[in-house]
Amino acid sequence: MTSLPTTYPTIRVTAMPADANPYGDIFGGWLMGQMDLAAGSVASHHAGGRAVTIAVEGMKFHRPVIVGDEVSVYATLVATGNTSMTIEVEAWRRGRHSDEAYKVTQARFVFVAIGEDRQPRRVAGMAG
């Protein structure tokens, strides 16, 4: 088992029945959406404004998430370019009545900072 991140999660949510297939497993798309929300929060904060997802790399599903699980999503900025940011994201599950947590998904999300015109702009704080 991989070690749980030592930082606070960017997002924490309970998986609900509406997010599941008929067998009670949470849809991968729902989980990916939660990861995108967490990565977007980190990207827009770092960029000092609007940022959009342009790529998701290396998406891996390690374990299922089931209805009632608490899902914690950890997002960490790992690289910054002139207009882009790469965020490493991990999602972890914890059963509703358990202390054990397991990594269920991981991926790298790439974002680009954009301006009012919806065109790429330099990341805030970048030398210009």
List keywords for this structure.
128 residues, alpha+beta, Thiol Ester Dehydrase, Chain A, five-stranded antiparallel β-sheet, 1 helix, 39% strand
Please describe what this structure looks like.
It holds the Pfam family 4HBT. Belongs to the acyl coenzyme A hydrolase family. This protein is α+β, with helices and mostly antiparallel strands and 128 residues long. It has one helix and five strands. It has a five-stranded antiparallel β-sheet, with helices on one face. The protein starts with 10 loop residues before the first strand and ends in a 15-residue tail after the last strand.
Quick structural summary:
InterPro entries: Cytosol_ACT (IPR040170), HOTDOG_ACOT (IPR033120), HotDog_dom_sf (IPR029069), Thioestr_dom (IPR006683). The model has no long low-confidence stretch (mean pLDDT 93).
H and E string: EHEEEE
Give the strand order of the largest sheet, numbering strands 1, 2, ... along the chain.
1-3-4-5-2
Would you give the CATH topology? Answer: Thiol Ester Dehydrase, Chain A
Strand content: 35-45%
GO molecular function: long-chain fatty acyl-CoA hydrolase activity
Family: Belongs to the acyl coenzyme A hydrolase family.
Domain HotDog ACOT-type: 5-117
Organism: Sphingomonas gellani
